[in-house]
Amino acid sequence: MKDWLMEHKSYAVAVALLVVVLIFYFYQNGASEAIQPQPLATDQVSEAGSIQEKSDEIMGKKQSQTAPVIMVDVKGQVKQPGVYKASEGERVIDVVSRAGGVTEQAEQGQVNFAERVKDEMVIYIPAKGEGAVVLPEASGNGVMVSGGTGQNEGKINLNKAEVNELQNLPGIGPAKAAAIIDYRETSGPFKRAEDLKNVSGIGEKTYEKLKDLVTAP
């Protein structure tokens, strides 16, 4: 046997080397397969990315759908009267705060600060001692809503209003209401709201309070 090995030594070495190479090859191939990424994991990552993209798209649409801007006119006893931008769903208190808040002379008890504002709305904050403002629709006291169906909607018609109705206007008591009726009976119908300044006892300051609350076709 020993003699046979000596004679075939080169063959034995070759066989041994072949065995080593085969072992090394299978070892490397097995390790490579062990670390191969699974197709399922790749699909899951792709699916997760798709879900994230859809979520971002939905959030972007929600953010772009902002509430429409409306315009509200704030008058009377506020620190900064004027026309203000607002969003649908805001309340009277929000817009009044934007106008600097009410003055010390404001009669807050007549105002429904919780009412939701509308486009083309007029918010009038009366002064202490003024009569209640005539309101169209079911609005809170002290707030006049001027709807979009007509420019004179909700205003008092100077040529048709009676004494009791006129007394609901700010700064108009029994005497001034009677003077308004007397003027239209003696001088003819009011042609415009500015004709109020021709009535005895109604000056520029009173007219400024009334001009947006009355109409004279």
UniProtKB/TrEMBL annotation:
**Coiled-coil positions:** none
Would I find Ion transport among this entry's keywords? no
Q: Which Gene3D superfamilies match?
A: Outer membrane lipoprotein wza domain like (3.10.560.10), Tex RuvX-like domain-like (1.10.150.310)
Q: Recall the GO molecular function terms of this protein's record.
A: DNA binding
Matching entries from SUPFAM superfamilies are given as: RuvA domain 2-like
Q: Kindly list the residue ranges recorded as spanning the membrane.
A: 12-28
Keywords in UniProt for this one?
A: Membrane, Transmembrane, Transmembrane helix
UniProt-listed InterPro entries: Competence_ComEA_HhH, Endo/Exo/Phosphatase_dom_1, Hlx-hairpin-Hlx_DNA-bd_motif, RuvA_2-like, Soluble_ligand-bd
GO CC aspect terms: type II protein secretion system complex
Cite the Helix-hairpin-helix DNA-binding motif class domain residue spans from the record.
164-183, 194-213
GO annotation terms (biological process):
DNA repair; protein secretion by the type II secretion system
Extract the SMART domains matched here: HhH1
Under PANTHER family, the record lists: ENDONUCLEASE/EXONUCLEASE/PHOSPHATASE FAMILY DOMAIN-CONTAINING PROTEIN 1, ENDONUCLEASE_EXONUCLEASE_PHOSPHATASE FAMILY DOMAIN-CONTAINING PROTEIN 1
Name of the featured protein = Helix-hairpin-helix domain-containing protein
Q: State the organism of origin.
A: Neobacillus citreus
